[in-house]
Amino acid sequence: MILDLYNNLETYLVIAALLFGLGIFGMLNRRSLIGMLIAAELLLGGASLNFMAFNRFLAPDPTTGQIFTLFIMGIAAAEAAIALSIIIAVYRNFKSIDTEDIAELQG
Amino acid sequence: MSSLVSVEGLAGVVFLVVVAVTLIGGVIATSSTRLPRAVSGLALCLIGIAGLYYFLNSPFLAAMEMLIYVGAVCVTIVFAIMLADPGADKKPGGMTAVGTAGSLGVGALFAWGLAALGTTTMWPAAAVKVNDGSVKAVGHALLTTYSFVFELISVVLLLAIIGALALARSGRDKA
């Protein structure tokens, strides 16, 4: 029954897999650094959703997954701050955030 | 098996809406050519994920998702777009058609593989739950079992703030 999907571990695993696939697609398809960062947030979201689903349905201690997801959020916030300041520094030097334009080491 | 006109049926409808919001937001975030639109899609997707956390018995994590991701990370990305997006003079379009098809194929392969793995495995349920996973239990575990990690992540965040300031500050006076 479609209305009982929310009480089912597999539903959440499939949603997390779709988010992860979208993140990989965006990561490969984007050419600007900010677009890739957005895709990375989707990847982290899929991973956190997996942790939360297993935590809800299978874990003997239901606080573990919640705390791990909290730590993922903290790391993701730190990662976003660092990545965006790197992007701003790159933009100052190259006047572009396109990955094709910032390939000076390509030889 | 629950009918539409019951609390469980209504929760099921809300769940379907939340799932649709999550996936539509994810598609917008990855496939729109304009970055502000992509950030809006990301915010939509993260609101959907917060709803999913609510369905997973964790209103605390849902609130944190809204605060940290939608409130902080998305706004920071918008600031970065305002500071660093060349915008109109950028050449339109992203990858070549072959590149887009290839990345779509790789993403679909990953999603299909993970979904197949998740649905075909027999997951053993835990025999006994040691607590109820409430906010009180989370706070207790955070300050006893995980107190060292808790302190460590505050150091990581402090370093991230200082590093972000140093990186974004350098080269500013000559620009």
Give the helices and strands, then pairings.
The complex is a heterodimer of chains A (107) and B (175).
Chain A: H1 9-29, H2 33-57, H3 64-94
Chain B: H1 7-31, H2 35-55, H3 59-84, H4 97-120, H5 135-143, H6 147-169
List key phrases describing it.
heterodimer; A: 107 residues; Helix Hairpins; 72% helix; B: 175 residues; Four Helix Bundle (Hemerythrin (Met), subunit A)
In short:
Chain A is mainly α.
Helix content of chain B: over 70%
Number of strands of chain A: 0
- How much of the residues of chain A is beta strand, in percent? under 5%
> Could you describe the largest sheet of chain A, including whether it forms a barrel?
none
Question: Could you characterize the architecture of this molecule?
Answer:
The complex is a heterodimer of chains A (107) and B (175). With 107 residues, chain A is an all-alpha fold. Chain A has a single domain, classed as Helix Hairpins, CATH 1.10.287.3510. Chain A is built from three helices and no strands. The N and C termini of chain A lie far apart (58 Å). The mean pLDDT of chain A is 88. With 175 residues, chain B is mostly helical. The longest helix of chain B has 26 residues. The termini of chain B are far apart.
